[in-house]
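Morning, I've got a small favour to ask if you have a moment. Here's the protein in full, and shout if anything looks odd to you:
***
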Amino acid sequence: MKEKPFFIRAEWDEEAHVWVASSDDVPGLVTEESDLEALIDKLKYMIPELLEANGVEITL
């Protein structure tokens, strides 16, 4: 089976002083953190949970 990558956008919100992550590939993904490392750590848990909740099968 060919694996499809999930594209995640991470953008700095200058006004709110936070990193904001969103994705068209992961339904419901919108989150923010004050630094990029914290955002990445948060996404490691959020993405699999959101994919499972939306019935998207992933293979590791």
Notes: The domain at 9-53 is CATH 3.30.2390.10 (TTHA1013/TTHA0281-like). The first helix runs from residue 36 to 53. The chain has one helix and three strands.
